[in-house]
Amino acid sequence: MSPSPVLPEVDPLIRKLAEEIAGHLTDRSALVGIHTGGAWVAQKLYALLGPEIPLGTLDIAFYRDDFSRMGLHPQVRPSQIDFPVEGAHIILVDDVLYTGRTVRAAMNELFDFGRPAAIELAVLIDRGGRELPIAAQYVGAVIPLPPHQHIQLNRDPQGRLSLSLLDKRH
Amino acid sequence: MAPNPQLDDNGKLCHLLTIEGLNAALIHSILDTAESFVGVNEREVKKVPLLRGKAIFNLFFEPSTRTRTTFEIAAKRLSADVVNLNIGASSQSKGETLLDTVDNLAAMGADMFIVRHSESGAAHFIARHVAPHIRVINAGDGRHAHPTQGLLDVFTIRRYKKDFSRLAIAIVGDIMHSRVARSEIHALTALGVPDLRVVGPRTLLPQGVEELGVRVYHDMEQGLKDVDVVMMLRLQNERMRGPLLPSAGEYFKHYGLTPAKLKRAKPDAIVMHPGPLNRGVEIDSAVADGPQAVILPQVTYGIAVRMAVMTLLAGSST
């Protein structure tokens, strides 16, 4: 059995992401976090990158490709995109990039708000295991994991973020 | 006790036939889902792909424009294929039975039936008959139930008043013939409304209505005193047999909602009506078009609530 990876602190990863993103911002850039973990990371990035960048959130529950098998997620939250998507440079933010299906669903939803000029992807962790041809432009850390392990972003009542490892076999 | 035909073996909603027997948690989960669909309906592209590939049949054995249209819009916004059937004008007039009609439509690949019928229990009858993967929504059966109307009414109240546990609500008018009133009463009692009143003449209140958890008023001014919500009902003239009322004018005098009578309610009370309105019979135009009326928002929210119900039912298909 392979040893469990040592999980990094979250805040340095978010600072690294912010530094990389800062060099690519335009006057039409906007941050969009995917519920739930992606929205937390996007909020932290927003605090570091400055208030002139619009911030939105997406709940992709209505766009999931496994709806007919799994049904609706019990806690759907309304997506909040209060800025024009048409022609915007969207930086989509998620916590963990795995199969790529969540990102695909998020892009489908974004296009229902308008036609962005470009979409880039920023993720805290890339854990591998892609099932679709999707790649992130900004990556906090690469942590390859076997299918039975899952990495989860947690937020405490003070808003501090941390990572934990879950094993589906247990 | 017979098993609840709305629930599957895991206690999940598989048909929506009545609000009776649904608990507060389940009702709130429908309302929460509807809240997200309100956002979809405010976007430029008012469509999501959830029910892509599903075939939904609007089976209306009784005429309706508003309800049928909102179900149709809701289904289309979920990307379903929708077929509208006005059965009174087709199959039944040729002698086909209800179940023959349903069987034929199931053979065409139906995934969901939205049923309106003048006979109480018609939607239950169909739900018991169809294959397990087919979902049935009652869009109004006789005097029995109109669950999506009840749900959109409580959704509207929740949007304006937030907390059900402090509300006084009056349902006014023809309770006797109203499936809407029954569904509203079941929903509001399940949600814990502490002061629920029905107001109307003795001839339009069913005997024993108190057993549903409501207080009865025959005097409208007393019935409206300090309420947060006034829910007016349409006079169901088409369901009345025999002279239950002296005249429309007399009814309006005692039970029509006028600005003067509305003053008995709280100053921020909202006025609701399931439509269509009989202006000058159960409601004065000054109230129907006034600042306290939320009658048109009810219609708008009806789409989101019906999207939520269809989604939750379709998502529990096996």
From TrEMBL, chain A:
MF-aspect GO terms: uracil phosphoribosyltransferase activity
Domain of life per record: Bacteria
Known EC number: 2.4.2.9
Domain Phosphoribosyltransferase: 13-139
One of the Pfam families matching this protein, by short name: Pribosyltran
InterPro entries to which the protein is assigned, alphabetical: PRTase-like, PRTase_dom, PyrR_bifunctional
Listed Gene3D superfamilies: 3.40.50.2020
Keywords tagged on the record: Glycosyltransferase, Transferase
Name listed for the protein in its UniProt record: Bifunctional pyr operon transcriptional regulator/uracil phosphoribosyltransferase PyrR
Species per Swiss-Prot/TrEMBL record: Thiobacter aerophilum
Automatic annotation (TrEMBL), chain B:
Domain Aspartate/ornithine carbamoyltransferase Asp/Orn-binding: 167-312
InterPro entries listed in its UniProt record: Asp/Orn_carbamoyltranf_P-bd, Asp/Orn_carbamoylTrfase, Asp/Orn_carbamoylTrfase_sf, Asp_carbamoyltransf, Asp_carbamoyltransf_Asp/Orn-bd
Binding site for carbamoyl phosphate: R66, T67, R116, H146, Q149, G275, P276
Catalytic reactions of this protein: carbamoyl phosphate + L-aspartate = N-carbamoyl-L-aspartate + phosphate + H(+)
Any Pfam family: OTCace_N
Enzyme nomenclature, EC number: 2.1.3.2
GO MF entry, a single one: aspartate carbamoyltransferase activity
Domain Aspartate/ornithine carbamoyltransferase carbamoyl-P binding: 15-158
UniProt pathway: Pyrimidine metabolism; UMP biosynthesis via de novo pathway; (S)-dihydroorotate from bicarbonate: step 2/3
Entry superkingdom: Bacteria
Signal sequence, renumbered to the chain: none
Record: residues binding L-aspartate: K94, R179, R234
Entry keyword set: Pyrimidine biosynthesis, Transferase
Entry keyword annotation includes Transferase: yes
Family according to the record: Belongs to the aspartate/ornithine carbamoyltransferase superfamily. ATCase family.
PANTHER family per record: ASPARTATE CARBAMOYLTRANSFERASE, ORNITHINE CARBAMOYLTRANSFERASE, MITOCHONDRIAL
Role of this protein: Catalyzes the condensation of carbamoyl phosphate and aspartate to form carbamoyl aspartate and inorganic phosphate, the committed step in the de novo pyrimidine nucleotide biosynthesis pathway.
Quaternary context: Heterododecamer (2C3:3R2) of six catalytic PyrB chains organized as two trimers (C3), and six regulatory PyrI chains organized as three dimers (R2).
Designated name of the protein: Aspartate carbamoyltransferase
Organism: Thiobacter aerophilum
Organism taxonomic ancestry: Bacteria, Pseudomonadati, Pseudomonadota, Betaproteobacteria, Burkholderiales
